[in-house]
Amino acid sequence: QVQLVESGGGLVQAGGSLRLSCAASGSISSFSFMGWYRQVSGKQRELVAGITSRGSTNYADSVKGRFVVSRDNGKNTPYLEMNSLKPEDTAVYYCRIVSPPNDYWGQGTQVTVSS
Fold it and tell me: Which of 59, 30, 48 minimizes the C-alpha distance to 91?
């Protein structure tokens, strides 16, 4: 069973940047989708940004123009570059890799943006 571990979260001031990474404990030979989700306590987890195996990307409206999702082609893991961060971006961020029939999730990394 592959385990995913996110890194790169932390505390940053509004307007700052962070880069999230997702490490896999084992080999992921192929995937159909990978991406980043976030969740605020008491609210539903939401998709922030994702990328398909064909390279198509999609973003939540709230992060378009500020966040960029990319992948490590050799490891099939995602990155999330977050710029112009806002206090409302504060959440726990999770990486997800769909490698059928498996659907892997990380444990999350906290991102806190201070005003």
Answer: 48
| Closest to 64 in 3D by CA, of 83, 77, 42 | 83
Q: pLDDT per residue over 71-105, tens digit each?
A: 998 889 999 999 999 999 999 999 999 999 999 99
Distance between CA atoms of residues 92 and 98, nearest Å:
20
| Range 24-49 burial, b when 16+ CB lie within 10 A, else e | beeebeebebbbbbbeeeeeeeeebb
* Positive/negative CA dihedral, 37, 111, 68, 23: negative
Identify whether the C-beta of residue 110 lies closer than 8 Å to the C-beta of residue 6: no
